[in-house]
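Q: Got a minute? One more chain.
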Amino acid sequence: MRFTGPTSLTAFFVQGLLVSSVIARRNNINRCPEPCSLSINPHDWIDYHTLDRLTWCNETMILDFAIYTPLDDTDKQSTIFACKANDKNTIHGNDQYQLAVSDELLEETTLSLEGGTWGTHAALPNDDLTQVTINSVKTWLVGSPRSHQDHIFGSSGKTVVGLYIGSKIQRATAVDSVAEQMLKYIEQKGISSQIVLQHCGSNADYILGMVINMDGDLPNVQQSVRTWSDGQCVQGFDNEAQFSEIFVPVAPTMKASGLRLKDKISADSYRLEGRETTCDYIQVVSGDSCGSLVQKCGITAAELAKYNPDPNLCSTLAVGQYICCSQGDLPDFSPKPYPNGTCYTYQAQAGDYCAKIASEHSLSVDDIESFNPETWGWMGCNNLQLGQRLCLSKGDAPFPAPIANAVCGPQVPGTKQPGNDGPSLWVGLNPCPLNACCNVWGQCGITPEFCSVTKSPTGNPGTAAPGSNGCIDSCSLLVTNIEAPDQFATVGYFLGSNTEDRECLTLDAWFMPTQQFTHIQFGFGDIASDYSISVKKGNDQFNFFKSMGGFKKIISFGGWEFSTSPQTYQIFRQGVKEENRAKRVEMLTVELLKSTTLKP
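A: Always. Here it is, folded:
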């Protein structure tokens, strides 16, 4: 933060206890994010960086974040994308979810459900937040056209819900069935501290689950969803819970049609270097084993070993790894830089972690770390954030992804990369007004949470140490006046109504130490709907104030509830309209000076 103006200003607050007015104004601000209907992509939602910030909103929210970056780990940053659930349709999306592999034939399958609870049972609260949150999460996930979106979270007050549906399970039917079973259980048994409902399939593609926590423990809910994404089931219940079977269309596990080379080339032709002898291949998902891969490929174990001759294959399977299901070689999936010199750029998804990303792109984790020495916001593989743009090849660092609520820095929506300037020069884009500090999340302020420079272990631009917001531009709290003014101004503030509103700690205008001030501001004058002026509260004090000398006089209009009260808040708003400006200016200047004596 830099102040370089020619004036030094000292504020004197005689009766300036403004805390209550600040709180009043805050209570009239909508503390919730924008509606979910504005975007189907969680990356476009408002992002928050502390769990406490979520408690500001008193409505139902849909949430998404990196499930492999624990929210309760104090050694890591948190990025939580949030939107406000709509009253009707949570998003504009598809009515019917299509599986990622569209040519698979679905089979109506009976799925057994199991689960359990933690804590004692209690009656469902009358506020109905549990049902509202479940329905909002269900509506969002069913409507999302994002085929890779296998999970979502929701919160309302202290009710937190997590939902996971494996990619081979027909989403719409499964979500409806799971929500129905959970609500039925709660209606019959009551609510507990935490309830889990799940189907333990063979791997992550065939698992589904819903978790409800009534203590606002989002990290615990995150852990359950991460467990399902890992192809495992949640365990350790205090009490077992019984649920009915459900009937859901599911893709068969045998002979999945692998992603052929020709399909991949058409989608991303510059990435792959194919050969005529390319094999048919599939990818490993969480929970897979060589046995399940044999079933997926529709081949024998001997053929799997023949097509994939690595003797350690079965003990080193990695999520995202490509496996040959026929004779031939795997293509090279390692990305190449773009023609303009920028590295191949990948945007992290909620279920990503570096080992998975590396396997999917024929890379190692060390490769990813080495490709990102200057990438904006890169805090390392151990602190991967949802929406992070990162390099998966050599090349220049990519311009960072926009942040919907950023007001400063390079991530303000609509900001274009300036020529060939690198990340070190992006910090000055969209500076804060009045040279205020800009933190790494694109927010302006003048306190340590905006102005203190910190870095993550990577030291990359746009990063901050865990538990801090860092600063990228106009940093530090040092106030610097380059040159002294010809004379200093010292301003005092006097609340005229203090003698009427308080039984003690009052002060008459006559007793102000006027010799200490060049200017004194009087609060407050009143403005009527016709823009006539008066002083209703503290009029006697105003008369004293007018008659005093030795300083310049200032009067403030409005104050306290004037700007928010239904009876008066429109006066300022109407007064700035073009048709009212001239009259308002005349009343506030000419008429004021005629009717009062505000001269030294």
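A: Residues 66 and 260 are 29 Å apart (CA to CA).
Q: Perfect, thanks.
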